[in-house]
Structure formats: C-alpha cells, structure tokens
Structures
1.
Amino acid sequence: MNDDPITSYLVQRLEQRPAHSKRLTNPLITVTISFCGNFWESSRTGLDAAVQFLHRGEGGRRGREGLGVSAGGGPAGRENLVARPGPIRRSKSERRRFCLWATRPVPSSPSSSSLPPPPVLLLLLLLVLLVRPPAAPPQLRASEPLARPGRMLANLQGVAFLPFLLVTWSSAAFIISYVIAVLEGHVNPFLPYISDTGTTPPESGIFGFMINISAFLGAATMYTRFKIVKKQSETSHFISPVFNIVSFGLGLVGCIGMCIVANFQELAVPVVHDGGALLAFVCGVIYTLLQSIISYKSCPRWNSVTMSRIRMVISAVSCAAVVPMIAFASLISITKLEWNPDEKDYKNHLGSAICEWTVAFGFIFYFLTFIPDFQDVTVKATLEIQNIE
C-alpha cells in the first residue's frame, strides 16, 4: 500500500469497524482502497460512495449490524467521514444509481485535465463483491412427465413405441400396396378398396406380410392398454373389470379379422375375405367406442377432457362410416378390381370405398392418441422355473 495520507486514513477508519465486519480486510478490498486513494482529488464523492457501498455490502450480508459511512462534500469531506452502526439495507436501485454515477463522463477542467478517467476498475471490483449469482432454476420433479401431447412424437418413452409403430407400419402397408397396385395398373387410382390393392401379385405378398404384422402390433397395443386400465382402475375404481375385458376381447377379434383379410385374397376366397373384413371393421369400431367411454370415466385423473373428446369424435366418425360401408357393399352384385363410372354399381362401390378408407384411417388416428398414455408405462417380463432341485 502506498503512503498517501488519504489511504492511510481510510485504513485507520476501517480498522476501527465493529467485530462482525472483520471480513472487510482482504487483499481485494485493500487494492480497492489503494486504487481509490489515487483518485481522491478527481473523484472524492465517488470514493465516499465506494466506501459506503463496501460497508453496506458487508453489513447487509451479515443481516444484523452494519457499518455505514456518510461523506460530506467540500474540501473537508475527508474529515466528515463518520462511522454509524445500525442495520442498513442495500437495494437494487442504489446499486443502479452508483453504477450510473461510476460510468458517467467527467467534465474536463484546467486543473484536472491530466487526471485519469472515472474509476471503472472500482466498478468491476464492486460488482464482484456485491452482485449475487442468479439462482439456479428449479429442478423438474421426478414424477413430472417430460413429454406432453404436443411433443409426443419427439420423446417416445416407456412403451409409447408400440402405438407409434402400429400407426406408422399400418399407414405404410396401405400406402405401399396402393402405390404398387396403381403403378402396375391393377386398380383404378381413384379410391379403390383397400383389399383391392393387395389382391394381385406382387403387391399381394407385401400387403399380406405387412397387415399380419399390423395385426400383431395391434394386439400388443390393445393388451398394454388393457393392463394400463386395469392398473388404474384398481386405485380409482372408475370402470368395471368386465367392461375392460369385453373391450379387450373385441379388439382381439378385430385383429384376427385383419389376419383373415391379409391371408385370404378377395378374388380367391371372397366369402372368407369378406367375413374377416366384417370382423375387423365392426369389432374395431366397437373397441374404439368402448375405449372412448373408458377415457371419459377416467377423467380427470388419468385422462384429460380434451383427449377424451378427441377419441370420442374419432370413434363417432368411424361408427357413422362403418354402417354405410356395409350397406353400400351389400348392394354390389359383382366383385371386380377395375370400375368404370358408367357401370350401375359404381356409385355403391365409390360410397363403400370412401367409408372403408375413413374407418381405416380412423383406427390409425385413434391409436395415435394412445402415445401420451403409454409414455409413463414400463413393461417387465419375469421368468419363474418351478420344481428345480
């Protein structure tokens, strides 16, 4: 430290502070005071404010007694430095006013033209001493889900991959077989039956293979949904176990109907094919309707009202489409792949095909709504061997 009388006076005043402020004597404060002493003549008011801020920072931090320094103006400001004990609170507005003062431009004068600029280093040291680091953000609760419906495709947690894989695989089965059948010239591009796109080779092999896998994925998804509802109902008792079992059984029958449609082509065995299609569509529609009722019963603990309404709308549209689909199909007198608008059964074929595609994609969108419910579910397989010696 230099021998400047101002600096010596400040050190002497600081050594007379209360015992609880001993932390004020550290190398950083000493450097700050020494730096301020060199600028006393150019910014006496700034030095007074700096010392006062240093005392306020330590006193407010202790939370009990502090040491405040009041500085008087004029040439005798050094003798007007008075220590006054008592609780002093330091607000953000005081910090802001001091920072604005410390960075203000100093007007030039003949006597101070060679003096250095305002104490910017003092401002940096005060920021290090007085400014607190920002509080850490609150951590997410362990039970809070990370993915919501708006981001359900970005974070497939738990067993959410089951309905997602079912939706993507089934959509690919319909689209791929349709594209191949149209490119090969086996069906008309405008709204053929779904089964028509999988009747003639080579698309028939692709259609049968992919629909069989879709039926398996559908059964796995329905079984997982059945176990989820069963577990939830054990604590909330919102639905009868029989209702849940009936819904699951109808879903499995619909999956069996899908396998029949995939393995028995429309032109080869039309009766068996039509019977499988009837099982798949009717049982599937009833399954979605029963699941919508379960969703409403489980509100608001296990499902949101918005999601329940979406499911009910999809199931209602599917129910409204399956009835005219069956009615129009029963009026068609001949089974064929290529239709002309001039034929008498063309309108019945067109109406039935529109309803069939509506029901099929209704199933796809319905299973898509299962993804948020499956994200918080984990399936574990256990193996037990009995009679081991």
2.
Amino acid sequence: MGICLSTTKVSGSNSGSNNNNANHHRNANKEEAKRRHNRHARNDTTHKHQHQHQERAKNYQQLKTKQHQKTNSRRQTGVIPCGKRTDFGYDKDFDRRYTIGKLLGHGQFGYTYVATDKANGDRVAVKKIEKNKMILPIAVEDVKREVKILQALAGHENVVKFYNAFEDDNYVYIAMELCEGGELLDRILAKKDSRYTEKDAAVVVRQMLRVAAECHLHGLVHRDMKPENFLFKSAKEDSSLKATDFGLSDFIKPGKKFQDIVGSAYYVAPEVLKRKSGPESDVWSIGVITYILLCGRRPFWDKTEDGIFKEVQHNSHF
C-alpha cells in the first residue's frame, strides 16, 4: 500500500495537531520503509535460494553428463563381453567341418543358416550366436543350457536332432537337423478357413504332447510352445512335426515353480502371469494351439500385450 510523502499545509493555530500529524507521517514512513526493506530482504533470500537451486541443478546435470561420458568411454574402450571371455568347451573346427549357406532366420543373439557337411554333403541347420552380444554371464548360461537341453532330448522323434556344438573367437555354432517343411503356423494359414479337421488336428496335437511329455520326463519345461516353434521335417502332408527353439526352456525341480514371466503373449498360461508356473504351462500352450487348429482363430485377443494378458487371466478355464 502506497504512503503519501507530501506534507499538508496547515494554519499556525493548529501547530500541535500539525506536529502530531507530522510525527504520525514520519512514523508511518519509517514503518513502510521497514516493511519494504523486509520485502526486499525476503525477495533477495528467495532469489538467492532460487539461484542456489539452479546452480545445484546445473552442477548435477554436469555431473550426470560427465558420468555418462565416462560410461560411454568405458563401453567404447573396454569392458569385454562375458561371451568373448568364455571358453564354452565346444569343438573348435566348425569351418573345417561345414560350409555356411543361405540365411533361414534370425533372433536376438544370432542367425540360423543352412550349412553343408563337407564330409558327406548332408545339409544341416546351424544356429550362429555372436559372443559379443553375450554381455552378461546369464547370456552365456542361456547358450550352455540350450545345448544341454538339445543333448538331453536327443533321439526323440519329435525334437530336432542335435549334431554338435562348436565355437571360435567370435561365435558359438549349434548344428541341428534341417527341417524344410515350414512352420506349423504356415500350414494352419494354408488350410481352408485356417482350420484343421479333427482327425488331422489330432495327429498334430499328439506329437506336441509327446514333446511335452519328453521334456517333463527330463525335468524340463519348454516355456514357449507356439506354432512358430514347431517345424515339419518335409513339405509332405504327412510329415512328422519337430519341436525347436529351446532358448526359453529350463530345468525345474519337483515342487518348485518359475517366478519369471516368459513366453509369447497369446500362448502364455495364467500360472506364468501369476509368477508360479511349472510343467502345466506347456499343456496350456498346447491347448491354445489345439483351439487354433480347430477354430481357425485365437481364443484370446486384444490390441496390446497387457490386454491379452487380462483376457488370459479372465478366461483361465476356456
């Protein structure tokens, strides 16, 4: 609030009153000056705090930038991926044994090729996994486990045959049976209305159940059963079906449960989403595939992965 600083002209007969008024104005002026000083002091303190805050934020940002630069520098100069430092103990003579051919497909860590055995001319499938992408020890363990699983299931008629594992300085190579009949998914889509007859579906489902039974017999859970992970040995209509891609598979002890969420959204079991899954999750996935074979569509659908998960949980007795 503004205070008038001009004096009022009064007559001499009111000099006492004038003095009182003058004193009043002087006191008022002092009070106002004091209030202004206090306001300025508060403003200065506020500005000072704001400035200090800005300085701290600036220093923090500079520190983060330096740390980021150091991290990038370390990445560029140096930390060797775990895969590069690991001797897997596999044979080292891949190039002497095989010739790499055309690309079949690729995943997160590597590529799958057709390769030819130089000794007999047989064609095989080779999964070529880059060691540089195995940053953490868990990635190394995943590769070792997949090889161990293929060895454990070797000889089963509905699992791709495992031939050997190799390595060099840059890659791990897994040589397997070549299946040229395409994915089960492609066969489904090629059917009229994308449906199998009950008789034909029974043949397919029986083979998938054999795979699940063999896995569970060895204390294994596949954890990613879906039409894309089943291949036909040949293009013949009555070709045998082979399970492949055991990258998410794992061993489990009786009575124990997995607590992580893995698999493909449309085929994942409710127990997986509840973080307490076991061998039964493979049976659920086969049930979903059976539904697709007979009905030509998925039992659960949504635009988002979260939406699919909700559908699975709300219809766990489909």
3.
Amino acid sequence: MSLASLYLVLYNIIQFFGWCYLLVISVLHLVQTKQIDGLWFEIALPLKIFQTWMAVEVLHSAFRLVRSSAVTTLVQIASRVFIVWLVFDLVPVTRVKPGLALCAIAWPIAESTRYLYYILSSSGSVPGVVVWLRYSLFLVLYPLGVLGEMLSVYASLPAYQKSVISLAGVSVRVYSLLIGILVIYIPGLFVMYRHMLLQRRKVLAPKTTSSRKKIH
C-alpha cells in the first residue's frame, strides 16, 4: 500500500468514527430530551472539527488522490462549512429550529455510510449491502439535509438583516446574499440529485467487480 493510500485509509477511518459519534449523540439527545434545544452544545465541537476537516477532500480531488470532482466536492463542503460556522455558530436562534435536527441526523448517516464504503473499497471488497446503502440512502438523506440547511439559513435571516459586508469595494447586505443562497439551493439540489442518480445507476447496474471499483 502506498503512502497516499495509507493516508486516505486512516483519514476515512477517523472520519467514519467521528460521524458515527455525531450520529449517536444526536439521536440520544433527541430521543432522551425530545427537544432540539441543547443539541448544538453537544455536537458543536465534533461537528466543527469533522466538517471543517473535510475541506482537505478538495485537495484530495485536486491532486487526484481520489476520482471525485474537485469542483463538486468544493461546492458540497463549502455549503456545509457555511451552515456550521456562519449559521449555527453565529445565530443562536437557529440552534432550536428543526433545521438543526435534520442536519444533525441526515449529515452523519450520509457521511458514516460514505466513509465506510471508502474504507472497505481500499480492502478490495465491499459487501453488496454497503454498496447499496452508499448509493441509495441519498434518495432520502440528501433532500432532508438540504431542507435542514435551507430552514437554518431562513431562520438566520432576521439576525443578518442589518449586516453589511464589502465585496470588491462594494457594500452588500448579508441578508440579500442569504436570499440569493436560498434561491441557488433549488437548482443546486436538482443538479446534484441528478448527478447522484446517474452515479447510482452506474454502480448498481449489473457489472463486473473491477468496473465497480472505479466509481466513487
């Protein structure tokens, strides 16, 4: 195994356990307390660590360590990092809204499944059930995650109503930017969902084992 491959395996293992941990504490909190309030304080630190760390995956793609598109990876991770740091972390009201609960469940399930798939792929053998989960759970989880993100951005709007930032010397209202982001989410969901459906069709269609390994 090359040094790069060993690095990717270790990275995937750590991320897998990190997201599993996030899923466990999120589910336990919601089941035991039956409320969203307080959930952020339990998941904030690990979520910031593992979600922000995922930014290195853009480099993984850029340097051809993996086959994923660097642009697609950047868009997906940037939107998540934005939600974590500029919405949940800076706007307290978003921490008691349904959007947080949706993200706290959908994100960890999706990521733990994805990293498990990558770990097993490195061994050369992925059980059929894991392949199916990797390319099927998104059918429900992706819309739920996007809904959670949109609800959270919407909940943050009042807090940013008077905020202004300078872009290339031009003053821009943060409120307007957030509205623009919400509008972009709709076509973005369609494009990404279609892309993942095509990937699902390629992977789950009858094929040889060798050709299946090439798609991530």
